[in-house]
Structures are given as structure tokens and as C-alpha cells.
Write a structure and sequence with these properties.
Elements (H helix, E strand, L loop, with lengths): L1 H22 L6 H21 L1 E5 L2 E5 L1 H4 L5 H6 L2 H21 L4 H32 L4 H12 L2 H12 L1 H4 L5 H16 L10 H17 L6 H21 L22 H16 L1 H7 L3 H12 L1 H19 L15 H25 L22 H7 L5
Antiparallel strand pairs: 1-2
């Protein structure tokens, strides 16, 4: 009987995957969706692996295993994948804007549609965490704990603001060469670190740094990155430049922020983070053909399509899933991998064991809040699985189905 149930489940999954596969438009470049899904899942796993909430009496404070275990630094190289997300975002936005112009859709309608999917899910996050923060403070929870939780929960919003600004500027950025923003990042870092300039100069790189992969995405749309030579050049040159900056210019090896470190490569972005992003973008471009081949398998494509349908929900709620698990489990006492100092292999092993629990908590958040990302609210269908090309009016009403 169990064998029959397992067979039935597998058969149902396979049939569902085949339906999603058949509904996807034939002209769709599935490698784009695969790269977006990998980028978002990389960020989620990276946060779950390097973000620790240590219980210190009644207070929760933020810590990171990278503080105590520097040999884990390569984890930040694997899971700091925001550059790939901006690469895909620039590619999709410039392609979408060109298509909208060709169909006579005004800029303001195009932009409204693209930003709707970005910011509708934000309302749910802000509403919930406003209620949670007030409730915690009224219940006597330490202010430092509430501040830590709210800061972590809302930390993904900085990314959305930058992404939204670049999206709004897409018509101006569509022809911009990536070397221009790269030159801005170089000069800002030269002023900051070479000539002792003010630290606030670094925040110029918050826009310029992510503009580099975004404009690379625009170059992809123009067909300038189709040859594998472009991907190899970005990968090799970006890797060499990053290694040189870390080895000889004093940049941190970690590509994410480490509590207590004098310099963060990510907050704001440094030249090392940007050159590392160039290497990631080169690798992403080189993987396109393999990803297209993998996406021909219905089950693999169905998984990627489902991630893309809820990409903003996953991104915005993954920190909440981590904190909900940590706070709930604290009722049972200080548990390894959740509430203890991340300073040994025991913590690493325990944290890996907690990952499925975080995923289950995220699934609950997804089930509760994914409807905020559906667009018109009448149907879960989007262009990831739609079988026909939308009309211009439908495309504008439905908004962006590629974030």
C-alpha cells in the first residue's frame, strides 16, 4: 500500500510538472528564470547560514560564524548572489521596456506595472512587523531585542529601494556602458581608502555598485554578451581583480558584512564586491546553455517556475522565518545552532540541521502571504506558466511577472 501511495504521489508530481512545462511559452528563455531562482535562493541560504541570534539573558543580539570561524569565508562567495539578481533584473527590465515601447505602452503604465509586484508584498511585511514590534515592547521585551529583530526583518527592503530606483531609470540606463559606474566605484573607494575621505562617500556606491551588473543585463539584452568570450572575460578578470584587492589592497575576504569588522564589502558595496559581482555575472552567462538544457526537464522547470512565481514572498519573508523559529524555540531553552555563540563546528552542524525547519517556517509564510504577489488577485497564473502571449493591455494590468 505504501508503495502504491508513493507511486501515486510521484505520478501526481510528474503530471503537474508536465502541465506547467506545457503551459510555458515556447519563446521563453528559461535560463533567465533559473538564474533568478538561484540568485534568490543563494541569498536566502546565505542569510540562514551566517546570521545568528545569540541569547544573552533576556536579550537577543546578532552574531555571525564568520566572526569566529574565518575559514567559513568561502560560504559568502557561494551565497552572496545579488549581482546575478541585478544582472537578470537589468536584462528583463530593458527587454520589457523595449517591448512596451514597441506596443505603444506609456512609460508610466509600464513602470507602475513593474513596481507593483515589488512593493505590494512589502505592505504585508511592514504591517505584520509593526504589530509584532508594538506587542513585544508592550509585553516588556528588551528594546535591544526588538530592534535586532525588526532590523533583520526589514533588512531586505534596502535592496528593493535600489532595485526600484534602477528600474525607474531603465530608459536612461539602457545604453549605459558598465565601465562608467565601475569607474565611479573605483574613484569613490580611492577617495575613501586611499586619501582618507569621509565614510559617507561610500554610499554613492549603493547605486553605482549595483548599477554595474544592472547595465550588464542591459548589454545582454542588446546582444553584446551572447558570445562565450564575454562570460569568460568577466569571470577571469573579475576573479583576478577581486583576489588582488583582497591580497594587496586590504579589502575583506568576506563578501558579506561581518559584525565588528572595520570595513564591510556589502554595506555599502566596495570595489571588491563589484569585481566579485562581475565574476559571478561571467559565470552566470557561461552557465546559460547548461541551464537551458536542465530546464527541459519538466520537474526541474516546474520547481524553478514556482520559485519565480513567489520570488518576492520568499525574499521578503525568509528572515522572518529564521526569527520566528529562533524565538519560538527559545521557549525550550538555549538550543545549539539557534541561540548559542557560533564559534565551533558543533554550531555549524546544528545550524545545518535547522535549515529544514527554517524552510518549513518559510513555507508557512509563503502560504499566508503569497497572494500579495499575485497581481490582480483573481488568479495565480503569471507569464511563467501562461500558454499565450499577453496583449499589451493585459501585460500592463498584470504587472511584472519577472521581478
Amino acid at each position: 500500500m505504501r508503495r502504491g501511495i508513493r507511486h501515486g504521489v510521484r505520478h501526481g508530481v510528474r503530471r503537474g510538472a508536465e502541465r506547467i512545462d506545457a503551459a510555458a511559452p515556447a519563446h521563453r528563455d528559461r535560463a533567465v528564470d533559473a538564474l533568478r531562482a538561484l540568485a534568490v535562493l543563494g541569498v536566502v541560504l546565505g542569510h540562514w547560514l551566517v546570521t545568528a541570534l545569540v541569547a544573552d539573558g533576556r536579550t537577543l543580539r546578532t552574531a555571525s560564524p564568520l566572526q569566529h570561524l574565518p575559514w567559513l569565508t568561502p560560504v559568502s562567495w557561494l551565497f552572496q548572489t545579488l549581482a546575478v539578481f541585478f544582472l537578470v533584473g537589468g536584462h528583463v527590465a530593458t527587454r520589457s521596456h523595449a517591448s512596451a515601447r514597441a506596443r505603444g505602452i506609456p512609460y508610466h503604465r509600464w513602470l507602475r506595472g513593474r513596481l507593483a509586484r515589488l512593493f505590494k508584498p512589502v505592505a504585508a511585511v511592514l504591517s505584520l512587523w509593526t504589530v509584532v514590534a508594538v506587542a513585544l515592547l508592550l509585553s516588556g521585551t528588551e528594546y535591544a531585542t526588538v530592534r535586532t529583530l525588526v532590523k533583520l526583518a526589514l533588512s531586505p527592503l534596502w535592496f528593493l529601494l535600489v532595485f526600484a530606483a534602477l528600474t525607474a531609470a531603465t530608459p536612461l540606463l539602457a545604453r549605459l556602458h558598465p565601465l562608467w559606474p565601475l569607474a565611479v566605484v573605483l574613484h569613490v573607494d580611492l577617495l575613501r581608502f586611499g586619501f582618507g575621505g569621509s565614510a559617507w562617500l561610500g554610499w554613492i556606491n549603493l547605486a553605482a555598485g549595483w548599477l554595474v551588473p544592472y547595465t550588464l543585463g542591459a548589454a545582454w539584452t542588446r546582444g553584446e554578451l551572447e558570445h562565450r568570450r564575454a562570460g569568460r572575460f568577466l569571470l577571469v578578470s573579475g576573479t583576478a581583480a577581486t583576489a588582488a584587492l583582497v591580497a594587496w589592497a586590504g579589502y575583506p575576504a568576506s563578501m558579506v558584512g561581518v559584525p565588528g569588522a572595520a570595513v564591510s564589502n556589502l554595506n555599502p558595496p566596495t570595489l571588491a564586491a563589484v569585481t566579485f559581482g562581475l565574476a559571478q555575472c561571467g559565470l552566470a552567462l557561461l552557465l546559460r546553455e547548461r541551464l537551458r538544457g536542465a530546464m527541459r526537464r519538466p520537474v526541474v522547470w516546474a520547481a524553478v517556475a514556482l520559485v519565480n512565481l513567489s520570488v518576492m514572498t520568499v525574499f521578503l519573508w525568509h528572515q522572518t522565518a529564521l526569527m520566528a523559529t529562533t524565538a519560538t524555540a527559545l521557549l525550550l531553552g538555549r538550543l545549539p545552532g539557534l541561540h548559542t555563540v557560533p564559534n565551533g563546528l558543533g554550531w555549524v552542524a546544528a545550524r545545518l540541521a535547522w535549515l529544514p525547519v527554517f524552510a518549513a517556517a518559510l513555507a508557512v509564510c509563503w502560504a499566508a502571504f503569497r497572494f500579495w504577489e499575485r497581481g490582480d488577485g483573481r488568479s495565480g497564473r503569471t507569464r511563467v506558466v501562461r500558454a499565450h502571449r499577453p496583449t499589451a493591455d493585459q501585460d500592463t494590468r498584470q504587472g511584472v511577472r519577472h521581478v
